[in-house]
Amino acid sequence: NYYYFYIYVGLADSFFVLDPIRGLLLIHSAIRVSDTLSRGMLRAILHAPASFFLEKQPGYIINRFSKDVAITDDQLPLAIFDYFQLFLIVLGAVTVVSAMIPWTMLVTLPLGISCMVLRHYFLRTFRQLKQMESEAKNPIFAHIVATLKGLWTIRAFSRDDYFENIFHQALDIHTATWFLYLSALRWFQMRIDIIFTLFITAVTFISVGVKGYSEGSIAIALTLAMNIMSTFQWAINTSIEVEGMVSAGHSAAEESSGFVVTPPPPDWPSAGHLEVVNLSMRHSPTAPYVLQNISFNVQQGQKMAILGRTGAGKSTLLACLLLQRDVEGEVRIDGLSARNVAPYTWRSAFQVITQKIFIFTGTLRKNLDPYGRCNDEEIWKAIDLAGLRDVVEALPGGLDVMLVEGGWVLSEGQKQLLSLVRCLLYKARILLLDEPTANLDQITAQTMMRIIRKEFKDCTILVSEHRIRAIYDCNQILVLEDGKVREYGTAQVVFKKSALFREFVPDTGSFRGHPVRSSMTLRHSIKHISLQEELAEDDIIQETRL
After folding, report:
1. For residue 350, what are the β-bridge partners?
2. From CA 174, how far away is CA 180, in angstroms rounded?
3. Which of 69, 252, 359, 387 holds its CA 20 to 30 A away from the CA of 44?
4. What is the per-residue pLDDT across 296-345, written as a single tens digit (0 to 9) for each?
5. Is the pLDDT score of 250 beyond 60?
6. Taking the complete model, does pTM exceed 0.70, yes or no?
7. Exposed/middle/buried for 158, CB within 10 Å: 0-12, 13-18, 19+?
8. Which of 438, 436, 433, 439 is nearest to 456 (CA)?
9. What is the pLDDT of residues 134-173, one digit of tens each?
10. Under CATH, which number does the domain 57-251 receive?
11. What angle do CA 42, 47, 48 make, to 5 degrees?
């Protein structure tokens, strides 16, 4: 008499024990997956080249780190949990109905196959609609970020209505794609309802028409068949949601897809020998090449000038050396290829002074020494070398003054000299100068170049400069034209071969007077020119101070 009672008690106890274990295993797996995915995305973003941020809108990145990560953290584990539970419930109910009335198998198998074929057909369209809906959010996030950044300007020019209309247009596009998504989902659900209506009808006619089944068996079969309809529809909808959430997880995982880090030797780079072999670059796979087959070799302590008209590719070449662009070819420092080194480690071999200096929001000390590796004595020594002690001491708080909005309290010349202080504190083996004196007055420019010649004499230097005086002491000249190497060699050799180079040199006697007889003669000639320039600069600076 207690046989069935024991069975029900055993099932209830098993459910009480196994259900928490199932939930704990699922939550533990979800936490590990979420942690791995989030860390991979953040690592990929931090190591991404600058071209990635030019191609992807801020809204795209925000969408991946907010909506897609939230889906994989919160909704996806619960959806998978419900999906497997509902699938087992439907499978159990269909098995019971088929066991009680075997003739229903004639209907169950064809209708089950029809459901799977319909689901497969629908998913091809569903994935595209889900992707469209996700991408339609990117302009909304991007517009919100841009509006918040330029809120003062928008209000100053009374452009509130214009930006509000843009937001409404982006929102309408997202609503339209969301409507298509819901319409397709309702189309699928209606056909699933039709299939299960046929299933219930078939079970009813078979139960009544076939003799030999008791009233209790028929009642149980019909009850389960009716419950299957709602449960299976729920299971199908959940499986569709899981597919959509998994696609969001795939989108997030794309941002964490692999880069391989090979740590270089501890003393790398020891010399600063820079070698570029067949370097080419284009902004997209279908775009024309901006740089094509650039090759040069700069030994330790040498200085190379990069010349060319506007748009020739000078700044792009320096950006490629810093891995800010996806390039073809080889770039090596001391024999180690850029492909085998993490971008952060690779860039630590360079110091850069550009035409436009970026000032971080923070203290002056943090701007000069972001990693906190130098003490106050070393910082003040570098400031003295750059001639900025009076400027820094005049600031309220000195090194602890807070710089905001790009350091508007400083002039462009002072920002350039602060960039020079950064380079003095972190003396890398290779120094890149991208027209650092273009926006400077003559005195500040001469001061900067004199400090560079004195303090970085053992470093490898690449300079892209419009002032021809800055290239008189260069060991090599690289002339670019339309992204290709026009001439490459010593100044005297390039001067004889290249008419383009002679256009950049107004005082041709500076190079004609020093023919290439030997390396010793060239070295003495360069030192003689540099000494004359330095003496002249000292006189000009002294007169200006007086």
Report:
1. 430
2. 10
3. 359
4. 988 888 888 888 777 888 888 888 888 777 788 888 888 888 888 877 78
5. no
6. no
7. exposed
8. 433
9. 788 888 888 888 888 888 888 888 888 999 999 999 999 9
10. 1.20.1560.10
11. 95
Region(s) of the chain under CATH 3.40.50.300: 274-505
Q: Are strands 476-481 and 484-489 parallel, antiparallel or unpaired?
A: antiparallel
Residues shown for the chain: 546
Confidence of residue 55 (pLDDT cuts 50, 70, 90): confident
Q: Which residues belong to CATH 1.20.1560.10 in the chain?
A: 57-251
Dihedral sign of CA atoms 484, 486, 492, 495 in order: negative
Work out the pLDDT band at 244, boundaries 50, 70, 90: low
Q: At what angle do helices 3-46 and 76-100 cross, to 10 degrees?
A: 150
The token duo for 70 is 């939230």
Angle at 385 between CA 364 and CA 372, to 5 degrees: 35
Task: Calculate the CA dihedral of residues 352, 354, 356, 362 and round it to 10 degrees.
Answer: 20
Q: Output the pLDDT for position 188.
A: 86
Residue 57: its H or E element: none
Could you please state the CATH topology (level 3) that the domain comprising 274-505 is classified under: Rossmann fold (3.40.50)
Check: CB of residue 151 under 8 Å from CB of residue 93. no
